Amino acid sequence: MQNQTKITDIKGSFELRNGVQMPYLGLGTYQSDNDQEVVNAIKSAIKIGYRHIDTAAVYKNEEGVGKGIIESGIDRSELFLVSKVWNDDQGYDETLKAFDESLARLGVDYLDLYLIHWPVSGKYKETWKALEYLYAQKKIKAIGVSNFLQHHLEDLLKDCEIVPMVNQMEFHPYLVQQELIDYCNVNGIQYESWSPFMQGKVFELDICDDLAKKYNKSVAQIILRWNLQKCVVAIPKSVHENRIASNADIFDFELSDEDIAFLDGLETGERTGPDPDNFNF
Q1: Whole-model pTM?
Q2: pLDDT average, residue stretch 127-147
């Protein structure tokens, strides 16, 4: 099941399996400081038109994100707000407590999406049961996972009542993982990318410069457009208003099928972040 949504504008969305609309372009806040930096980034993004904000407990900036939302003046109902339960807080009761703490820091009474941040062995199934409970209580509009490889998903699907609606993964031209994308599509799991710019390394690839010249766009805009045309939700992080605006200027062109295939073909399996099969935090 692959989303067939047309990529139209910054407020466009992909429909999750339960009918919830998830804006396909959002603002990431990883490594944004929990002070005026993240407050200003949120306000700038909302002013530009972003309606999807992604944070996590471990980012230590949920208070700033919440403050930015309040200061933006936008109605909470217009936003798609995402957070994640950290590894130390996994387990059933621990997750329920961590969720309440995230809500308190953000200053909201529900989340649009809550994710298990990493597949902590021996804990993620109990954590998922807590997410299912919170979803049933209507405290979350959608639930999902992050950094789950296919075998993690298969293991979770053996026992879960609700199939995850989203899987947020490291995704960029060197780490496409098309088989995992296909598996998620078949199971109605929306794929989402983190680190779409390979922590800046993508800007060092001369090969992407050719596409940037061809379309008269920046390398960042080419990569984000590639994400969206592959029906992958993108949440590029920036705290600079001009870059936040530039990252959203991707709706006046379309990559050809050949150029999408070219970017797909750059796959090397190289990660810029931790391996979901080998992390110790």
Answers
A1: 0.97
A2: 98
